[in-house]
């Protein structure tokens, strides 16, 4: 029977991930647009994404405990049901309060799915396969974003919001698929976050061996800061692109940022596996994202001809963040070791989703009184401020 990257279990996980993130991607830029139609301003639109991410992050810290109690499969099943089942209820009202109530339930489900999914990738694969496994998992996450982020905006423009909300039930198909999934780990089973196993010594990573306990927290800081800053930039863009430009320009820009992230994650996975560049892609990824956000500042200031720059900036933000996503996840797995894959996944996903929330709420708060150029400028400054702290620390 095939194991590792070629196992049926791993590929079924990827398909279920595509379905789960399909519903997430379809609704992510549409819910802010929906409450805007109901009379909410930029801050209210940002709050919808901010609440989604806040609930997601709060849930994520409980997921390692859930993984120990009920296992990866049932965490994923329940999470996908919570993501998909409430989606059609959004059509009942565009008022902020009921939308936030539905968003809260969906956020709980999303928090469960994100941590359990990426932790299961590490559980199913040997450390030497983590880089390529993370990049393939990134493709499963990125393809729905690539296809459905812009699709949702276009469908709303053609036939209205209700069809998109019904499409948000796609994660239920992923839940059905997970029910038949048999999880046979490729390596020895280690209890998630078992403190006794934390003395395992060193773990292999794409960039070599990394001490697992000494310097672990210092090593985790750079990947987490890079994730937070990159997610802030992309979260702000995804939230506000649909309400700052024409439908055509927003659709192209959303497609571009999703495509950039997809390519960035895949390229990072290959560079780490083939060139042993683990930990060296965080600074370039953050700086590429800063250039992209600077382009968005200029686009927001232009009165005409802004669309090409808007799309190019979104592409660069996505590409830089894609590099950061893959390299940071592999580094966190390496620093934590098999005993702490659940914890590493929770930290990575919390940084990801916290950043999206900060991008939506924080940049929305700036955009309200000062405009979107100032908001995108704040995102640029954050990336530049964080970049020096994302360098890989010298090994002891």
From TrEMBL:
UniProt keyword Membrane, yes or no: yes
Main location: membrane
Superkingdom assignment: Bacteria
Compartment(s) of residence: Cell membrane
Keywords recorded for this protein, A-Z: Membrane, Transmembrane, Transmembrane helix
Short name of one Pfam family: MFS_1
Cellular component terms (Gene Ontology): plasma membrane
Membrane topology reported for the UniProt record: Multi-pass membrane protein
Membrane is among the record's keywords: yes
PROSITE patterns linked to this entry: MFS
A GO term for molecular function: transmembrane transporter activity
Domain Major facilitator superfamily (MFS) profile: 9-395
Transmembrane feature ranges: 44-67, 74-93, 105-125, 137-155, 161-181, 221-241, 247-268, 280-301, 307-325, 346-367, 373-390
Name by which UniProt lists this protein: MFS transporter
Lineage: Bacteria, Bacillati, Actinomycetota, Actinomycetes, Pseudonocardiales
């Amino acid at each position: 029977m095939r194991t590792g990257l070629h196992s049926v279990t791993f590929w079924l996980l990827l398909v279920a991930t595509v379905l789960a993130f399909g519903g997430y991607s379809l609704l992510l830029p549409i819910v802010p647009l929906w409450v805007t139609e109901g009379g909410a301003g930029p801050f209210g639109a940002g709050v919808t994404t901010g609440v989604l991410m806040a609930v997601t992050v709060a849930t994520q810290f409980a997921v390692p405990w859930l993984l120990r109690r009920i296992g990866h499969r049932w965490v994923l099943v329940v999470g996908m049901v919570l993501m998909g089942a409430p989606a059609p209820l959004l059509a009942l009202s565009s008022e902020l309060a009921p939308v936030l109530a539905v968003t809260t339930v969906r956020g709980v489900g999303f928090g469960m799915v994100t941590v359990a999914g990426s932790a299961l990738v590490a559980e199913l694969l040997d450390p030497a396969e983590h880089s390529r496994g993370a990049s393939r998992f990134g493709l499963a996450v990125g393809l729905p974003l690539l296809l459905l982020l812009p699709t949702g905006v276009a469908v709303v423009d053609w036939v209205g919001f209700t069809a998109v909300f019904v499409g948000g039930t796609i994660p239920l198909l992923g839940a059905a698929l997970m029910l038949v999934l048999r999880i046979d780990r490729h390596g020895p089973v280690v209890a998630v976050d078992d403190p006794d196993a934390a003395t395992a010594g060193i773990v292999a990573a794409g960039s070599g061996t990394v001490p697992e306990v000494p310097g672990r927290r210092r090593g985790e800081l750079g990947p987490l800061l890079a994730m937070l800053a990159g997610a802030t930039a992309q979260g702000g863009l995804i939230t506000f692109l649909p309400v700052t430009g024409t439908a055509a320009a927003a659709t192209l820009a959303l497609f571009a940022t999703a495509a950039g992230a997809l390519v960035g994650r895949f390229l990072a996975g290959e560079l780490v596996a083939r060139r042993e560049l683990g930990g060296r892609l965080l600074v370039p990824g953050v700086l590429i994202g800063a250039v992209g956000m600077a382009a968005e500042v200029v686009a927001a200031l232009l009165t005409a001809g802004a669309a090409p720059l808007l799309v190019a900036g979104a592409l660069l933000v996505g590409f830089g963040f894609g590099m950061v996503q893959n390299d940071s996840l592999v580094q966190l797995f390496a620093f934590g070791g098999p005993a702490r894959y659940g914890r590493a996944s929770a930290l990575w996903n919390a940084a990801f989703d916290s950043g999206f929330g900060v991008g939506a709420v924080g940049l929305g708060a700036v955009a309200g009184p000062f405009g979107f150029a100032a908001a995108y400028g704040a995102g640029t400054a954050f990336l530049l401020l964080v970049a020096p702290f994302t360098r890989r620390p010298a090994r002891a």
